[in-house]
Amino acid sequence: VVEQQNRLFTILFDGNGIDMRKFSNSMTMDWDDIKVLSQSELVTIGAHTSNHPNLKNLDEESMRKEMMDSKRDIESHIGQAVEHFAFPFGSDNEAGMREFRIAEQLGFKTSTTTRCGNIFPSHARHSNCLPRISPSPALLDTFPHIYTSGVIPALTQKFKRVVTE
User: Fold this and answer.
1) What Rg do the C-alpha atoms of the chain give, in angstroms?
2) What pLDDT tens digit does each residue of the chain (165 aa) get?
């Protein structure tokens, strides 16, 4: 899958005369930037995987490698323990009980899905499959108070508390 993604990006960028590495470097933080950011008490850096695969499509060994390689790589650059994980994609089709169990076994204190929801005390027993709020840039710019209030997940879930299992 990673090889296919790399080929596609090469075709798209090269075909349009764009230096992919130069473009990427201009749009992203480097490790020095990330290390500085990680030193703020307002920021927590978490792992995500090395190649952003759908974890449900991987065998257990490959999944563990993706998660741990990301964790170790980040730790080596920021000089701090990485204790939190965000599932790539993270819907029911990409992350389930097996993936949640593995994240917990690998020592992550929390793991987030992409399932829309607010956090409640009952999530303390489900810290390896937390919902999250994925803001829409257009609405976030216009109505930031709506996202910080938790209204969007409440409406999305029809006022039910989401606990993923």
Assistant:
1) 18
2) 668 888 888 888 888 899 888 888 888 899 999 999 999 999 999 999 999 999 999 999 999 999 999 999 999 999 999 999 999 977 788 889 999 999 999 999 999 988 878 888 888 888 898 888 776 666 667 767 777 787 777 777 777 776 665
